[in-house]
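Predicting structure from sequence has reshaped protein science. With that in mind, we have picked out one protein's residues alongside their backbone shape tokens:
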Amino acid sequence: MLLRTIFAATAALAVLLVPATAVQAAPDRSTATRTSATAPVPAPDGSAPASAADETFNVAANANPVIVVGGLIGVSIAYEPIAARLRADGFRVSIYQLPSLGFGDIRESAKAFKNYVDQVRANTGAAKVDIVAHSEGGLVSRWYVKFLGGADAVGRYVSLGSPQQGTYVANIVNFVGLGSCAGIVACQQMSIGSDFLATLNSGDDTPGAVRWTTVRTWQDELVRPVGNASLADGATNVLIQGWCPLRVVGHLGLVLDGTTYTVVRQVLTDRPIWPNCFAF
């Protein structure tokens, strides 16, 4: 039985790693209400704002602890590169690996994440934490903020390639004959049109006083259409290629890419978003 489960999961993930660029994009329900950060807005003299162009900054000693939230099959070590960058810049950082590597019910993962946030706050004495979440981790974190009291415990939320409105890639698993995501609950919930997403996206996308930011990339192999990685209701949505047209960043690359990291750092330090297209 265990081998059968592993085989099914492997088959499903193989399909999820196939680009879905030929899939038609679903209508964007939130275009009119989004705050977009997909194109630079220069200062009056045509240059970047001084606070954005200057890479020198200080992280306050009492800055919120940062929790890096992994995605599906996202083992902790995979997020060590972005965590190391954050630590080097002076942030207090921890990595949260999803229970059962994210295969289970996202709502249950969010309950476990709530306990983890409470533990971090207790250990650090911080009133709030900041979240940097990759892929499925962005949905886990949003469910926590929206339905489990997280709006009072989170200061800033940054998602990296999270299928906020679902992904057709998950739907394709069923199309190729593997059934409903080969029985992987989280995959079913990330399918466009799922009951889970209907509940998560009902009402306000961005509740509370949280600073909401999403980051996406045209080369994302797993979130299709790529616009589904965005949020409505006042969120800042950053398309990497909207600023850096020649930058090639895949789904997994979002946690390794230097340009993406400059966006994360700017959000966490309340600076204007002005990605460094030449960052490594």
About this structure: The chain has ten helices and seven strands.
